[in-house]
Amino acid sequence: MLKSFIQSNVREIVGSSGPPIQFLLPAGDPGLFGPDSLPWEIHADFISMMIGGISSLILQALHPGALAGIWDHSSFREDLKGRLGRTAFFIAATTYGSTEMANKAIERVVNIHQKVTGIDEFNHPYSANDPHLLAWVHLTETSSFMRSYLDYKNSRLPRHQQDQYFSQMTLIGNRLGARDLPQSRLETERSIESYFAELHYGQRAKSVIDLLGNFPSRPAQKPFVDLLVKAGFMNLPEWAFSKIERKPPSKLEHIVIHSAIHLVAKPLRMALREGVRSHALRRVNGR
Length: 287
Description:
This protein is mainly α and 287 residues long. Helices cover 64% and strands 2% of the residues. Strand 1 (117-119) and strand 2 form a beta hairpin. Helix 1 (2-14) crosses helix 13 and helix 7 (131-152) packs antiparallel against helix 8.
């Protein structure tokens, strides 16, 4: 009963309609990464991915060029849940999908990006195909996912495997159009620092971050969603708090949020054992 309740609510949060049976075929296809890769390991943990996804959206909103494309060409302000669901499916498809599914997902995004152009809030032209902006999105996503995974799933992941994750994920970033992506965690952090002078916390960014801070949800889901959002803000790197004019979380806040996440994580992970990764593994093994 609890398992079904958790599964149905998770599907609603990410906009899924049912079990991920599309990941079962074709038999034997490892996809772009395969089950021995670090993306297969890290992206499998729903709760840390949700937390990392929220913090990455906050960081992405701080770049006027990256935000402008979403602001002008997306319905995220009216359908934040839909935007989150589409992003979650893209990550699932490129990580766990068959080679054909992953390629189609990438091609679809590249085609959409070709139409996303305009003028940002500083009257500078932007294009969603700009390798510089694509790299910012890639850097913020991968670093946010890694921070969250280390905090909530496996703090003992060896540094060389952390680096391997960033190296392997360049496959997706490069396919989307980014260039010269870093191959390690340290290089990723340094690349993020190179963008600091370009970041801006204006009215657009404030409205997006306020929207994320008040993520829409049904009453039954609200306590869980609010917890994820708080953890998402807590997952931000230290430099980001002054940028968004918020105090860094206190030690007590860290303890409370971490304890709450670990409390809900166990039943959640149990309920989602037959999720996307499990279906994809059955495909790879020809079952």
